[in-house]
Specification:
About 55% of the residues lie in helices and about 5% in strands. It has a five-stranded mixed β-sheet with strand order 3-4-5-9-6. Strands 1-2 form a two-stranded antiparallel sheet. β7 and β8 form a beta hairpin. α17 packs across α18 and α25 crosses α28. It starts with a helix and ends with a helix.
Length: about 675
């Protein structure tokens, strides 16, 4: 039985993916069945003897290939969250076929001719706003994907796209495999010096799972980060740091040549489509509009942030010296001393806060915030299939009891899961051709510390913020409204999509919110007022350093994608050198020889953030500016929340992002709001 058949005959009450019935051997036949069905649907549109209309061409195209889309959503999401060697090989096998299928559509002369005919007569069609937006976006998508190219150029484009698809898959596979390949196995208790009990317990639990004695620490962030922050063993911190920073800069999982290949393909594609650089092609439909605007934005923020970042690092350097450290402050020292200084300066650390942030209670509080702002309710259900025992599924309803979405939570690390945290969908919101409303299947995937034999999963304050961030993306998908799947939910401009997620982070440090739910997991006592005051006081600790670090990523991303050509023999060390040169002027600590972040920079080389990583800072401006309205009117104000839902969360890509933001805020965003929020005032 194929996945395609399962999708059509799913027996559960929401028509959710039948994970309990899907087998790995089903995927490739399902993909190929979906491709065949999609080709037949496209052929029916392009060969239609009737004159092209909005309905028989634009709307028909929008709904074509739905089966293939569902199969792809299931497979590629699981390839990130619950993969296997077999799935990774299948991804490499099917990706060229999928790329070819999509290119066949985009480069179909007859199809584009029909689209253009409808587009050229758009002013006489009397279309409503949503239909006009779909028509415009469809035409632009085809035109910018090579529909106007010659047959020879189309064939060339197809080859570049297929190569790019495979390179991206290989990049991501290398990062996952390299992360899994390293462990720090500690057998001498003396090497645990400085580690809090919860870090020791997590290490012991990891070792036990692997059938080993002692303690195991990995490069998964929930394991790596606290080890770097607390271990007093400088040699082990260095070992962990170097392992993390060199994961893909040599050896079996070297990604540097893959980066060269990816950038080369992207440059060729941009040139073929009439753009000077990949960045020119990427940003034209975003709020920033041009690469010059992006680079100017990054420079403004860097100029403002750099003095604060240098001041932050100098403070840590002086603190370390006061504690008897007489060496050069290196990147593997910074996490340890910055954490220690924060502990001392604010009398606050993760160990003090974690007991108040049990994962189950944090999740209830996040759900409660959605109910307080938007009237949503999350009810766990046990009759929906899951793809892993760690996953929990919730029925999301509005204040009138209407079903809005299924919400899947997947919180713990495992070997088959990529690192980090993300929100994704197994199906989007739209209205099908029969007029039935289809609601989305939304999933949050994280890598929080697993429960141990003695303790539940307890989050750091940073992880609480991460959960709120990803939940913001989920709300964007859950509250989506609209007829067409390509225009709903998170299908918005890259530099706008982070607004719904980043604005949610602000509630993490609001006393009124924290007081309403944070309690000790053992005693049940509420979080003390003095701890909340310390959280607020320390909120902008190292904000200058953090801002510069984030800008470094955005600057390097733009440097890669503003290249007009690739230098000869641009491989290996030259890739590492390029990163160093691009980030020149942003370094606050000495570089560790041999390390580089770009070979594991999945956001831009294996994800959708190419020439778009700046969007995190761009959206940070939007979220700071937007949250000031909540602060002014009340952080739980239903009118402000209602406006945010109406103008931002529910609209998707119905209108340009600049228009949507103005509709909510009444004006353009103010960059000074970000600096006020970060405590970086002139």
């Amino acid at each position: 039985m194929t996945v395609n058949t399962l999708l059509k005959k799913s027996k559960n009450r929401f028509g959710a993916p039948a994970f309990d019935k899907i087998k790995e051997e089903d995927y490739l036949p399902a993909f190929r069945e979906g491709i065949k069905e999609g080709e037949e649907e496209i052929n029916a549109i392009s060969e239609n003897p009737e004159s092209p209309t909005f309905e028989n061409t634009i709307a028909a195209l929008e709904y074509a290939g739905q089966t293939l889309s569902r199969v792809s959503e299931i497979f590629f999401n699981l390839n990130e969250a619950e993969t296997s060697d077999r799935m990774q090989k299948m991804a490499e096998e099917i990706s060229p076929e999928l790329t070819q299928f999509h290119l066949t559509i985009l480069l179909n002369k007859k199809l584009f001719s029909r689209i253009k005919e409808v587009y050229d007569s758009r002013k006489e069609l009397g279309l409503n706003e949503e239909d006009m937006r779909l028509l415009t976006e469809t035409y632009k998508g085809f035109a910018r994907s090579g529909a106007c190219l010659s047959d020879e150029k189309k064939e060339e484009l197809s080859k570049y796209q297929q190569k790019l698809s495979l390179l991206g898959l290989k990049f991501g596979k290398n990062v996952l495999d390299a992360t899994n390949a390293f462990t720090l196995h500690i057998t001498d208790p003396a090497d645990l010096e400085g580690l809090p009990d919860y870090v020791k317990e997590a290490g012991a639990s990891e070792a036990k799972e692997r059938g080993l004695s002692g303690w195991i620490y990995t490069l998964d962030f929930p394991s790596w980060r606290p080890f770097m922050q607390y271990s007093k063993k400088r040699d082990l911190r260095k070992k962990m740091y170097m392992a993390y920073g060199t994961r893909c800069t040599g050896g079996e999982f070297d990604n540097r040549n893959i980066i060269s290949g990816i950038i080369d393909q992207r440059i060729h594609i941009a040139k073929l489509l009439g753009y000077d650089t990949p960045a020119d092609m990427a940003v034209q439909d975003r709020m920033a509009q041009t690469k010059e605007n992006v680079n100017s934005f990054l420079k403004r923020l860097l100029d403002r942030s750099l003095p604060f970042g240098k001041k932050d690092v100098e403070a840590i350097r002086e603190y370390a010296a006061e504690k008897g450290f007489d060496g050069e402050l290196m990147p593997w020292d910074f996490p340890y001393f910055s954490r220690a200084m924060k502990d001392e300066k604010y009398d606050l650390n993760d160990n003090m806060l974690k007991p108040y942030f049990e994962l189950k209670e944090v999740q209830k509080a996040v759900f409660g915030l959605a109910e307080r702002l938007y009237g949503l309710k999350f009810s766990e259900t046990d009759d929906i299939p899951k793809y892993h025992p760690d996953v929990h599924v919730y029925d999301v309803t509005d204040e009138n009891g209407k079903h809005l979405a299924l919400f899947y939570s997947d919180f713990y690390p495992r070997a088959g899961k990529h690192g980090g945290a993300w929100t994704t969908e197994f199906g989007e919101a739209y209205i099908n051709p029969s007029g039935e409303e289809v609601r989305p299947f939304v999933s949050i995937v994280c890598n929080f510390t697993k429960p141990t034999d003695t303790k539940p999963s307890l989050l750091t304050f940073s992880e609480v913020t991460t959960l709120l961030h990803e939940f913001g993306h989920s709300l964007h998908a859950i509250m989506a409204e609209g007829k067409y799947p390509s225009l709903t939910g998170t299908n918005v401009a890259r530099d706008f999509v982070e607004l719904p997620s980043q604005i949610m982070e602000n509630w993490a440090s609001e006393p009124e919110y924290l007081c309403s739910w944070a309690k000790h997991y053992e005693t049940g006592k509420p979080i003390p007022e003095d701890l909340i005051k310390k959280i607020i006081a320390s909120r902008n600790y190292l904000s200058g350093y953090a801002s510069v670090r984030q800008l470094t990523f955005g600057i390097c991303d733009m440097a890669w994608h503003c290249m007009e050509s690739l230098p000869d023999n641009f491989t290996g060390e030259k890739v590492t050198d390029f990163e160093q040169e691009a980030a020149e002027g942003t370094h606050l600590l000495p570089a560790a020889p041999g390390t580089a972040f770009c070979p594991t920079f999945s956001h831009i080389f294996a994800g959708g953030y190419a020439a778009g990583y700046y969007s995190y800072k761009w959206s940070e401006v939007l979220s700071a500016d937007a949250f000031e309205l909540f602060k002014e009117k009340g952080i739980f104000n239903r009118d402000v929340a209602g406006s945010f839902r109406k103008e931002i969360l529910s609209k998707g890509n119905l209108r340009d992002a600049n228009i949507l933001y103005k509709a909510f805020r009444g004006r353009d965003p103010n960059e000074e709001a970000l600096f006020r929020n970060l405590g970086m005032k002139n």
